[in-house]
């Protein structure tokens, strides 16, 4: 009689244990709410810095390829910087890498994954812009300003990753950068890098803006 009487009690205890385990798994798997992973003040500062870098990139693009340039323009015919198809092919030929940003989708969880990719991309573009040094004297001020603002942005992200405890144990190092051996390659490379940077920032901006929404 005793074993029969203990069975319902054991069954109840087992059910309670299973329920608690299931509840714990649900809590662990539940994604945080929008913006809960990253401080709002940090996100707003990032958006401000990103707009500044985008403005710097636009200024560099306008100096590299003036808005009035068109296919019949001698400079366009010489450097072939006006046709997107030519730029894509040239980018592959010059070996200009493009950083991933798959963790910065609008529904990315955790948001710290986006930070790591964003910092990695900014770090890569710092190296690419350094490789463009000497493209032309008149472009040097715009290039220097862009590099400085990207550096400040990358430092801000790195500091936040350190505060959250998600920064890599070893700081990143630059890989092999493209070697631009002629004035044509440096100028064309500048157009490609500036264009790729703008596309990169546009995707990141949309993601960070969605993270910043209350």
TrEMBL record:
Signal peptide: 1-28
MF GO annotations: cytokine activity; granulocyte colony-stimulating factor receptor binding; growth factor activity
Entry-linked InterPro entries: 4_helix_cytokine-like_core, GCSF/MGF, IL-6/GCSF/MGF, IL6/GCSF/MGF_CS
Name this polypeptide is given: Granulocyte colony-stimulating factor
Complex and partners: Monomer.
Keyword Secreted among UniProt keywords: yes
Recorded family membership: Belongs to the IL-6 superfamily.
Gene Ontology CC terms: endocytic vesicle lumen; extracellular space
PROSITE patterns from the UniProt entry: INTERLEUKIN_6
Biological role stated in the UniProt entry: Granulocyte/macrophage colony-stimulating factors are cytokines that act in hematopoiesis by controlling the production, differentiation, and function of 2 related white cell populations of the blood, the granulocytes and the monocytes-macrophages. This CSF induces granulocytes.
Main location: secreted
Keyword Translocase applies: no
SMART domains reported for this sequence: IL6
């Amino acid at each position: 009689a005793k074993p029969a009487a203990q069975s319902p009690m054991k069954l109840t205890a087992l059910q309670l244990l299973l329920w608690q385990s299931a509840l714990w798994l649900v809590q662990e798997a539940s994604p945080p709410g929008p913006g809960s992973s990253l401080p709002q003040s940090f996100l707003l500062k990032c958006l401000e810095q990103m707009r500044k870098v985008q403005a710097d990139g636009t200024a560099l693009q306008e100096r590299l390829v003036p808005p009035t340039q068109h296919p019949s323009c001698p400079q366009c015919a010489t450097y072939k910087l006006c046709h997107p198809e030519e730029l894509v092919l040239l980018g592959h030929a010059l070996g200009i890498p493009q950083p991933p940003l798959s963790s910065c989708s609008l529904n990315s969880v955790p948001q710290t994954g986006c930070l790591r990719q964003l910092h990695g991309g900014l770090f890569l573009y710092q190296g690419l812009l350094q490789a463009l040094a000497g493209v032309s004297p008149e472009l040097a001020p715009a290039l220097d300003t862009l590099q400085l603002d990207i550096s400040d942005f990358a430092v801000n992200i790195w500091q936040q990753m350190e505060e959250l405890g998600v920064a890599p144990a070893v700081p990143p190092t630059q890989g092999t950068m493209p070697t631009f051996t002629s004035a044509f390659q440096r100028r064309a490379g500048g157009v490609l890098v500036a264009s790729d940077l703008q596309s990169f920032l546009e995707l990141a901006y949309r993601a960070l803006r969605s993270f910043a929404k209350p």
